[in-house]
């Protein structure tokens, strides 16, 4: 492979904002695997945000890129999987599998697509210093005849249109809006774009904690919600506490510490496969590798309010953010019924522009 922009490339990143800023280029925020695609003739490489190669997990995309992309190019975009008219991140996670036979099978039954939103190189020209608006024009021209499963992300320069996207597109599984300065060069690894994501609140049961990597203070709180059958389900974690607060939380929660997990609602299902399927604390994951997932059980008696962006199935898609304790709430009242369900929106309508 001999391209004007060579792998690995760290993708350009976004910093969060509370509102959509004016005077920008606006795109929907896709909920998939960020990927930089390099094609030089018959050679294709797909790099992840962390630099980890994704090529072997998406053979159907390698075939599509060879057939549908310009002969020599570098694209920034998102690998996604759609089911029943909306993005399905769980199906995407399943694609990261060590067995080649499983990868081939999943490529057939849950084929992925690629949504391109930036062009880093074309032919012999590196475009990193080219303004965003011009790169966008070049991207549209380069992928004019690409076709499914390669798509060009819809774009607008109208803030009101972007606000409409922010409200409607969530129903198709999208994650918010990204705003890019029109004259911005491509800056690998830098947070120079702006992302605006949905934020909601939920009252959750605090049923466990993980220790911080630095020592015996709280690293994260394990959150639960009761399902319709009355079982406490693990829905995610909240963290990002200042170090002083981590120590304070350890003291505050000490009276709830259980000597063992015996009798804890998350210890009922000890089978490893069941734990993985239920996303229980300590369940195995191909993503976490050797990361310490051990946890300390707490009696599920305290409730906290957290903010979250959206759900992935029956759990929080990203780490929630602690807002406050809710001593006025009973743990048994913390159910899935309180969560807001976005109005469904067909993904085909989004990709159709």
From TrEMBL:
ATP-dependent DNA ligase family profile domain: residues covered: 11-197
Pfam families membership: DNA_ligase_A_C, DNA_ligase_A_M
Recorded GO MF terms: ligase activity
Keyword Ligase: yes
Reactions performed catalytically: ATP + (deoxyribonucleotide)n-3'-hydroxyl + 5'-phospho-(deoxyribonucleotide)m = (deoxyribonucleotide)n+m + AMP + diphosphate
The keyword Heme appears for this protein: no
The enzyme's E.C. designation: 6.5.1.1
Gene3D superfamilies: DNA ligase/mRNA capping enzyme, Nucleic acid-binding proteins
Basic and acidic residues bias: start-end ranges: 265-277
Sorted UniProt keywords: Ligase
InterPro entries assigned to the protein according to its UniProt record, in alphabetical order: Adenylation_LigC-like, ATP-dep_DNA_ligase, DNA_ligase_ATP-dep_C, DNA_ligase_ATP-dep_cent, DNA_ligase_ATP-dep_CS, NA-bd_OB-fold, OBF_LigC-like
Disordered: annotated segments: 260-285
Residue ranges annotated for the DNA ligase ATP-dependent C-terminal domain, each copy included: 216-329
SUPFAM superfamilies in UniProt: DNA ligase/mRNA capping enzyme, catalytic domain, Nucleic acid-binding proteins
Entry similarity comment: Belongs to the ATP-dependent DNA ligase family.
Protein name, UniProt field: DNA ligase (ATP)
């Amino acid at each position: 492979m001999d391209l004007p922009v060579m792998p690995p490339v760290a993708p350009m990143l976004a910093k969060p904002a509370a509102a959509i800023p004016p005077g920008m280029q606006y795109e929907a925020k896709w909920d998939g695997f960020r990927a930089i695609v390099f094609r030089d003739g018959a050679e294709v490489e797909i790099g992840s945000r962390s630099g980890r190669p994704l090529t072997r997990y998406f053979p159907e995309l390698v075939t599509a890129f060879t057939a549908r992309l310009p002969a020599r190019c570098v694209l920034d975009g998102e690998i996604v999987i759609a089911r029943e008219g909306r993005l399905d991140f769980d199906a995407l996670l399943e694609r990261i599998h060590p067995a080649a036979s499983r990868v081939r099978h999943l490529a057939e039954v849950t084929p992925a697509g690629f949504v391109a939103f930036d062009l880093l190189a074309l032919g012999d020209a590196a475009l990193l210093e080219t303004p965003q608006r011009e790169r966008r024009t070049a991207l549209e021209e380069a992928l004019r005849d690409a076709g499914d499963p390669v798509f060009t992300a819809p774009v607008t320069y109208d803030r009101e249109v972007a606000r409409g996207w922010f409200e409607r597109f969530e129903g198709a599984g999208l994650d918010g809006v990204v705003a890019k300065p029109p004259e911005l060069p491509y800056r690998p690894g830098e947070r120079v774009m702006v992302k605006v994501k949905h934020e909601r609140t939920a009252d959750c049961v605090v049923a466990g904690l993980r220790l911080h990597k630095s020592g015996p203070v709280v690293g994260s709180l394990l959150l639960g919600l009761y399902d319709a059958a009355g079982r406490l389900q693990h829905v995610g974690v909240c963290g990002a506490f200042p170090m002083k607060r981590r120590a304070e939380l350890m003291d505050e929660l000490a009276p709830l510490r259980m000597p063992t997990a015996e009798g804890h609602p998350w210890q009922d299902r000890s089978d490893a496969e069941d734990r993985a399927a239920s996303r229980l604390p300590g369940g195995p994951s191909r993503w976490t590798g050797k990361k310490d997932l051990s946890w300390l059980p707490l009696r599920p008696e305290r409730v906290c309010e957290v903010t979250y962006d959206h759900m992935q199935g029956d759990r929080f898609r990203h780490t929630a953010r602690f807002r406050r304790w809710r001593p006025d709430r009973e743990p048994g009242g913390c159910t899935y019924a309180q969560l807001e369900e976005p109005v469904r929106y067909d993904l085909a309508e989004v990709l159709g522009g």
